Amino acid sequence: MTESQLIDPFGRTVDYIRMSVTDRCDFRCVYCMAEEMTFLPKSELLTIEELEVVARRFMAMGTKKIRLTGGEPLVRRNIIQLIRNLGAEVKAGNLDELTITTNGSQLSKMADDLADAGVRRINVSIDTLDRDKFKLITRWGDLDKVLDGLHAAKQAGLQIKLNAVALKGVNDDELGDMVSWCGDMGYDMTIIEVMPMGDIGNENRIGQYMPVSVVRSRLAKRFTLIDSAHQTAGPARYVEVQDTGRKLGFITPMTHNFCESCNRVRITCTGQLYMCLGQEDNADLSHALRTGGEAGLDEAIIEAIGRKPKGHDFVISRRVDNVAVGRHMNVTGG
Ligand code: SAM
Ligand code: SF4
User: What number does CATH give the domain 16-332?
Assistant: First the structure.
């Protein structure tokens, strides 16, 4: 492997890419999408082969970790081809990790293939263990199917981390039970604050906002939380739940600035490279690749990393509109 060439103007090495492989999804989570969501024409998406070329050029410039996300990454047709090809690089020692963030709906049929391909860890998003609430939050999801998928993933030997978005008045009273359940099942967990991404229709996001600091102090009454030195390539701050022995992460994009250690960039399913989740500046890698080939792509990547901003400025306040960043989470990738 070459030494990393991707160092931003603030001296941060960029060695982690998150790629959204589709904007489509089989769920319609209330904080993520409107129910009547209009998806991009398929012709605008990078093909599976183009996604792989982009991933490989980043790897050639030092990328060590790739996370596939969406939309729902596992509903993209032929996604397993990309996962197998990148997974082979993990097996060959050229990539430290290939991980996937998924809603779990396809896991019961795909978990074995993922494990065979070289995926070791997955994040599965589940905000509640109550069937009715799950339906309310995801609109189209089926909790039992997701739980079957989790079981299949565990059987396949995948390490699992649950992602739960804290939603005031919806699941905040249940998060303690979920921490406990994750302990029983052997899963780590991350609790995420709602972020102002994309127009989601009639839902009132301010009503949903639940500071993770409040969640944490409530959990601290029930569990012994020990600050952990554990640091992943992601933005979560971790504690160890002494009672369960599992890790618990908190992602607080609104109330805590984690930008100083940011080592990652995002690529949308249309090939736009976003140097920061919270800023609009981007580079069109699709155009660069389609017009300039791999050399053009390399040039566009290096140029874009040279303008990675210092940080973001999300604000949820009653004085501003519900939407701070116009992009939907499913396009940029969570
Ligand atoms: N469909 C996959 C899933 O749900 O895991 C991957 C994509 S989803 C956009 C990635 C993560 O973003 C999920 O954990 C989801 O809960 C989270 N997410 C989506 N919209 C969000 C928002 N507005 N604020 C905070 N987290 C959000
Ligand atoms: Fe789909 Fe994930 Fe968004 Fe839910 S959070 S609608 S599962 S992309």
Answer: 3.20.20.70
Largest alpha-carbon pair distance within the chain? Answer: 58
Of 299, 199, 191, nearest to 250 by C-alpha is 191
Q: Is 6 left (phi over 0), alpha (psi -120 to 50) or beta?
A: beta
In this predicted model, what pLDDT tens digit does every residue of 100-143 receive, in sequence order?
Answer: 999 999 999 999 999 999 999 999 999 999 999 999 999 999 99
Instruction: Name residue 191's amino acid.
Output: I
Task: Kindly indicate the confidence band of residue 320, based on its pLDDT and cuts at 50, 70 and 90.
Answer: very low
Task: Output the six-digit token pair for 164.
Answer: 């739960």
Q: What phi and psi values does residue 123 have, to the nearest 5 degrees?
A: -105, 130
192 lines ligand 1 (CB under 6 A): yes
Q: Are 283 and 309 in contact (CB under 8 A)?
A: no
Q: Which ligand is nearest to the CA of 39?
A: 2
Per the document, the length of the chain is 334
Checking if the pLDDT of 66 tops 80, the result is yes
Amino acid letter for position 107: L
Structure tokens, 77? 């047709």
- Number of the ligand 1 atom closest to the C-alpha atom of 31: 23
Task: Output the CA torsion 76→327→304→292 (10° steps).
Answer: 50
pTM for this prediction: 0.91
> Could you count the other beta carbons within 10 Å of the beta carbon of residue 6?
21
Quote the CA–CA distance of 291 and 289 in Å, as a whole number: 6
Question: What residue spans define the domains of the chain?
Answer: 16-332
Detail the DSSP E strand segments found in 75-158. Answer: 97-102, 121-125
Q: Which residue from 22, 139, 165 has its CB within 8 A of the most atoms of ligand 1, so it is best to mutate?
A: 165
Question: CA 100: distance to chain centroid?
Answer: 8
